[in-house]
Amino acid sequence: MSGNRIYLFDTTLRDGEQSPGVSLNVEEKLEIAHQLARLGVDVIEAGFPIASPGDFAAVEAIARQVRGPIIAGLCRATRQDIDRTWEAIREAESPRIHTFLATSDIHLQYKLQKSREEVLSQAVEAVKYAKKYCSDVEFSAEDASRSDVDFLAQVIEKVIDAGATVVNLPDTVGYAVPEEFGRFIRTMYEKVPNIDKAILSVHCHDDLGMAVANSLAGIINGARQVECAVNGIGERAGNAALEEIIMALYTRRAFYEKEININYGELFRTSRLVSSLTGMRVQPNKAIVGKNAFAHESGIHQDGVLKERSTYEIMSPELIGLSRGSLVLGKHSGRHAFKEHMIELGYQLNEDELDLAFRAFKEIADKKKEVTNDDLVALVMDKVWSIPERFKLTYLHVSSGTNIVPTATVKLAIDDMTFEAAATGDGPVDAACRAVDKITDIYGRMLDYKLNAVSSGKDALGEVVSHIEINGKLYGGRGLSTDIIEASVKSYINAINKFYYEKQQHAGPA
Ligand code: KIV
Ligand code: ZN
Q1: Which domains does the chain have, with CATH numbers?
Q2: From CA 408, how far away is CA 419, in angstroms rounded?
């Protein structure tokens, strides 16, 4: 492997899942992990197994089922954490234990209440202990960028001696600036005599909006692994955005002279999947994957692009899997054309998935004259990449307006039976959700609600992403329809289905 190779370590499922309001179930995490494998990242950090039974189950499932990338599990530098992580990742094709301990004086004094000597020996002990299980051990010096460089250099040297194969230097609080962070990485090369025995990694947070710039400065100065998350999600302001790092290294390859091994055509799909399953929308002006990233609004720009794309475009949308055409299929399109089109969009659906998607497409095509690529992508998220529907909406009637009490009648299919209920509420969506509660006997509270038009026009598909609290836990819900009230109720029912599904899984076989 060339010395210029940069390893992409994706932490969407661990640091990314620490984003406020994000809570993914095992199936959703698996779906994202499979997509990350298709994208071709080198490492998937699947979670923090000791954090909760759900985290453990997801890491274990990913380790068992996802092939290709290294599967890493995070743990603090204690035997109990390391044991639990190993238990979760042991069946991975290529497992990695990722253990971390803070090295900055601020963390030592206030959080750990430990001396430098104690931290040094704990770090070494943890790596040695992890090494008994796994040949691939990553050590992260939490808050590295605010640590005393001589102490940090000492810790790095000793953990490498103890067997760490990767040493990660996070800018945990997003405090660094690029020139300084680049210098910091270079200094570590100068101060740590055995640094060439491990891969040096960077992990930058975006509190000052510089996570990607800092990561790239780290790469220029010798880092060979970069940790990042899809759409830049993560703790607080998030992590360095994976798609931005990838496209910077690709588009400016003559400058960086680094190699990555990625299926670029999967980038947009990966972003869409993560945004859809986490409920964290991508801002329209977001680099690479935002809705406007390739849109030219000004007349002068449009004219230039029509004459020669390179006048105003530095990357091609097709490279990241975004198709330029929007009009695609209509209600007369057959299953074969649909299947071919889905393949062109990059979705290799099996026969069952194709059935589900085609049926949903026909329903939408009946209501909408033109079904766009964006509609089709949303439809796959909604119908194919979702958990089984215990409760299925078959009928919705709402009545609301000025000076009338909003009322709703709802019918839900459960197995082969249909159940009906009516309720009033603060608004038509609230009334419909209350009617759903009466049928399911599951009572949710909608905490957060976002409506997004998937395509343009009066008949655009509306996608509602909501967060519903049920029994004190948050569930993300998605719903898709040309009718926004229906989309909202579907998103509520989707969250109820997730709750039900999770309960069934914990209950085990009847
Ligand atoms: O930001 C950080 O320091 C981390 C470590 C656990 C790697 O996420
Ligand atoms: Zn982090």
Answers
A1: 7-278 (3.20.20.70), 299-384 (no CATH), 391-507 (3.30.160.270)
A2: 14
Structure tokens at 375: 């509609």
Between the CA of 111 and the centroid of ligand 1 the distance, in Å, is 15
The protein residue whose alpha carbon is closest to atom 1 in ligand 1 is: 172
Atom of ligand 1 nearest to the CA of 239: 1
Q: What's the rounded Cα separation, in Å, for the pair 45 and 50?
A: 14
Per DSSP, the three-state class of 105 is: helix
If one residue of 50, 97, 142 were mutated to test the ligand 1 pocket, choosing by the most ligand atoms within 8 A of its CB, it would be 142
How far apart CA 446 and CA 180 sit, in angstroms, is: 44
Take atom 8 of ligand 1 and give the residue whose Cα is closest: 15
CB atoms within 10 A of CB 103: 27
Q: What is the pLDDT along the chain (510 residues), one digit of tens a residue?
A: 457 999 999 999 999 998 887 888 898 999 999 999 999 999 999 999 999 999 999 999 999 999 999 999 999 999 999 999 999 999 999 999 999 999 999 999 999 999 999 999 999 999 999 999 999 999 999 999 999 999 999 999 999 999 999 999 999 999 999 999 999 999 999 999 999 999 999 999 999 999 999 999 999 999 999 999 999 999 999 999 999 999 999 999 999 999 999 999 999 999 989 998 888 889 999 999 998 898 877 788 888 888 888 999 999 999 999 876 544 677 888 888 888 888 877 777 889 889 988 988 888 888 877 788 778 888 887 777 777 789 999 999 999 999 999 999 999 999 989 999 999 999 999 999 999 999 999 999 988 888 888 776 777 788 898 889 999 888 888 898 889 999 999 999 999 998 998 888 766 543
Global pTM? Answer: 0.86
In this structure, which amino acid lies at residue 65? Q
Expressed in angstroms and rounded, the spacing between residue 226 Cα and the centre of ligand 2 is 12
Does the beta carbon of 138 lie inside 6 Å of ligand 1? no
Distances in whole angstroms, Cα of residue 425 to Cα of each of 405, 435, 451: 7, 9, 20
Tell me, in angstroms, the distance from the centre of ligand 2 to residue 205's CA. Answer: 6
Given a contact cutoff of 8 angstroms between Cβ atoms, the answer to whether 172 and 142 are in contact is yes
CB of 203 within 6 A of ligand 1: the answer is yes
140: Cβ below 6 Å to ligand 1?
A: yes
- Write out the two tokens for 113: 């209440």
CB of 147 shorter than 6 A to ligand 1: no
Give helix 242-251 / helix 267-278 axis angle, nearest 10°. Answer: 170
Shortest-distance Cα residue to atom 7 of ligand 1: 140
Ligand 1 within 6 A of CB of 100: yes
How close is the Cα of 170 to the center of ligand 1, in Å?
6
Question: Measured in angstroms, how far is the CA atom of residue 69 from the centroid of ligand 2?
Answer: 20
104 three-class SS: coil
